[in-house]
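Ops channel
N.P.: pipeline sanity check, posting one input/output pair.
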């Protein structure tokens, strides 16, 4: 083993260590930023030492180095632009887009190596050909599925499930085509035509599966696609014999799989049911009081400000409506006004608040909300009975008391116990239902008062009303 090989392996080991430490630090919002930085440093070191290895091996042509240089510059510029310019509210769709890039890149590695070294006259072993097949299937599904998820999150496609005719039968046929073509590729019966068929069918499968999944399940889908991308990267590592890709891909695949299970448990929905799709109708607008609002009690800014300002404790429940209105800064300003009056303020974060895991934590952190005030569901639920006011901003299904009784689409789903506070103030655009497609029983609870307005407007009005209070 040459000195260069020894250095490369040591750097890979150090990078893998940084990945593990970074993942551990991402368990907490307070340390997640540092974990992200450590992971980025590890990946940067791994990329740099890989380029040194290629340089020492002298196997890359000048044209190849030019392609690497251009790709590095373009990719770095795009990543830097996205990191600095994309709003926090658009982070879920950006993550989905990055998932697509990772899955597509991994699939291209497998495709390239098979076209170059595979076939009856090639030197790919059975194990390597199997890895190529899995790499292409998983990476391509992650690529097309992530693009559809990103389009749904961005609003370029409807967020509701899009159920095509005979979708179950079509999915089975596409999966069967992938299976048959995979056998042909691994057994060297069809070669390149089989590989092309796998790519086309896997692209179609990713689109069909994600189209049928609604916005309520999108946090789980994003996490699952991220896990698929990690597995595809690990398979690509086996294809080209790169231990760093294997380690990084395995870590992403495993952590994404664990997170997917946690998200599914938080919604009380098995992963298989999520993949079948068809759940919910999307976040729909509803009638204002006077129509379908029988039993609903509304509140104005002045009354709500009095209840908030003279409460001993307020628990704020942010939801996707807050993110859609980009009202996180107004929310924090209102909270600071209440704290100046001696009110204790905490934020209750449901595991699937927002549109991806950790989305709400990121939004609140951007508005300078202290991490110590962001409380997870299991931690904050016992404290709702001691809160004078629960202020719900844009959250719907995760606050629906119907989840506590059987026979409803949200039965068994863990919810935030906002209805156990002394008073509940709900800021929402309308009385429309959430992604589950059912009315929220919280809205007709005698303790609840509805403030029907856009979150940004409502929070600004509440802040102004609190400022006018004397004493």
């Amino acid at each position: 083993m040459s000195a260069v090989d020894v250095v490369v392996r040591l750097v890979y080991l150090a990078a893998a260590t940084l990945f593990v430490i970074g993942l551990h630090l991402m368990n907490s919002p307070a340390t997640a930023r540092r974990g992200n930085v450590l992971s980025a440093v590890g990946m940067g070191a791994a990329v740099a030492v890989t380029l040194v290895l290629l340089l020492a091996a002298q196997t890359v042509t000048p044209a190849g180095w030019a392609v690497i240089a251009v790709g590095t510059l373009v990719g770095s510029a795009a990543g830097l632009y996205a990191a600095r310019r994309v709003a926090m509210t658009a982070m879920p769709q950006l993550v989905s887009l990055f998932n697509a890039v990772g899955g597509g890149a991994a699939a291209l590695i497998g495709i390239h190596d098979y076209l170059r070294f595979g076939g009856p006259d090639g030197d790919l072993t059975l194990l390597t050909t199997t890895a190529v097949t899995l790499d292409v299937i998983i990476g391509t599904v992650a690529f097309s599925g992530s693009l559809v998820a990103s389009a749904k999150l961005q609003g370029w496609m409807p967020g509701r499930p899009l159920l095509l005719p005979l979708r179950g039968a079509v999915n089975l046929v596409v999966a069967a085509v992938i299976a048959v073509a995979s056998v042909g590729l691994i057994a060297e019966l069809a070669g390149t035509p089989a590989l092309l068929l796998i790519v086309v069918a896997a692209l179609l499968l990713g689109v069909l599966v994600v189209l049928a999944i609604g916005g309520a399940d999108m946090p789980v889908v994003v996490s699952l696609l991220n896990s698929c991308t990690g597995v595809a990267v690990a398979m690509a590592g086996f294809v080209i014999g790169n231990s760093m890709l294997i380690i990084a891909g395995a870590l992403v695949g495993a952590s994404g799989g664990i997170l997917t299970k946690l998200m599914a448990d938080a919604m009380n929905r098995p992963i298989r049911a999520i993949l079948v799709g068809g759940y919910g109708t999307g976040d729909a607008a509803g009638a204002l009081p006077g129509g379908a609002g029988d039993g609903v009690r509304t509140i104005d800014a002045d009354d709500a400000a009095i209840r908030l300002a003279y409460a001993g404790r307020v628990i704020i429940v942010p939801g996707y409506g807050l993110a859609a209105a980009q009202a996180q800064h107004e929310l924090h300003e209102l909270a600071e006004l209440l704290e100046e009056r001696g009110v204790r303020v905490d934020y209750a974060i449901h595991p699937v608040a927002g549109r991806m895991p950790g989305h709400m934590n990121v939004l609140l952190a951007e508005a300078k909300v202290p991490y110590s005030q962001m409380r997870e569901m299991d931690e904050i639920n016992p404290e709702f009975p001691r809160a004078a006011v629960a202020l719900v901003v844009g959250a719907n299904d995760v606050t629906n008391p119907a989840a506590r009784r059987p026979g409803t689409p949200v039965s068994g789903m863990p919810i935030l116990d906002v209805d156990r506070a002394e008073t509940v103030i709900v800021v929402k655009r309308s009385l429309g239902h959430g992604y589950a497609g059912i009315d929220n029983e919280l809205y007709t609870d005698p303790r609840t008062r509805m403030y029907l307005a856009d979150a940004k407007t409502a929070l600004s009005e509440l802040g102004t009303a609190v400022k006018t209070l004397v004493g």
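N.P.: looks fine end to end. The CA atoms of residues 15 and 43 lie 6 Å apart.
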